[in-house]
């Protein structure tokens, strides 16, 4: 019997050593230490032994059980440890790897350009003012020295909603409204960016909806030289310090005198090229001294107050700045176009 027990012990220990995973080990445990196992069987046969031998064999059987159990537990710990290490190494994350970029959208080229222009004027003391896109005939035309029947307020060129309501054709009505709110007291120093609408057939240079930025400075003693100084500073900051400006006489119903501003051509330095159509100059904006009628209608005394105003088209500025050849690119929203101006 003793030999049988020793044999069983050796057999069991060998199987424990050979077990390569926890499941196999559990099978060894059940088959050797279970109720139907060979050791239990040996113990059952102890009745045949003498009174002296019985405790000796009983003790040995217990020792064998214990030895096998110890070995099983040790092996179990070892296998669990190996399994854990394997799991950890498989699931490990390299936190130093660069992240995968998530594609993002961004502000439209025109939005960014408008904000850039706003910032330049904010830097010169202007405030940003906004107003409605559905406007009263009064603020869009009447208050800007364009009375009913004036040739420059062609019904065919505007989107009328009713007799008295239309989609604004410029952002000037925002300026008229702002002046009115000041109740005849200066200074008013604002720029008005926004969408405007004209009944045009869309082509490479025309759009029925586009954007505008207008500026207005009304106070005592505002002069033409103030206009020139502000516009010169704007042009140099926007297009580069080496650019020159020039003012040419022009006409707008809401300014007198009126001018148009050109900047010197960067491509040919004034020599003449295709960009500037051989003139050396590129037209950028229109401006002038606010017409006395406009001041009067907004509640300002034209004998005490003067002002300058200007207006420009961000699309035209962007087209010149980035060499964009078709105004429709701004509104088609083809990402291949938009992406060129999006830097995450
Ligand atoms: C252009 C020319 C201009 C104005 C806009 C203005 C507004 C008020 C009073 C007087 Cl409230 N003038 N605006 C003046 C001159 C020119 O725009 O070519 N824009 C794209």
From TrEMBL:
The keyword Transferase does not apply. Its cofactor is Mg(2+). One of its GO terms (biological process) is phenylalanyl-tRNA aminoacylation. Residues 109-340 form the Aminoacyl-transfer RNA synthetases class-II family profile domain. It comes from the Bacteria. One of its GO terms (molecular function) is phenylalanine-tRNA ligase activity. Keywords: Aminoacyl-tRNA synthetase, ATP-binding, Coiled coil, Cytoplasm, Ligase, Magnesium, Metal-binding, Nucleotide-binding, Protein biosynthesis. GO terms for cellular component: cytoplasm. Residues 65-92 form a coiled coil. It is an enzyme of class 6 (ligase). Binds 2 magnesium ions per tetramer. Pfam families: Phe_tRNA-synt_N, tRNA-synt_2d. It is found in: Cytoplasm. Its EC number is 6.1.1.20. Tetramer of two alpha and two beta subunits. Belongs to the class-II aminoacyl-tRNA synthetase family. Phe-tRNA synthetase alpha subunit type 1 subfamily. This is Phenylalanine--tRNA ligase alpha subunit. It comes from Salirhabdus euzebyi. The gene is pheS.
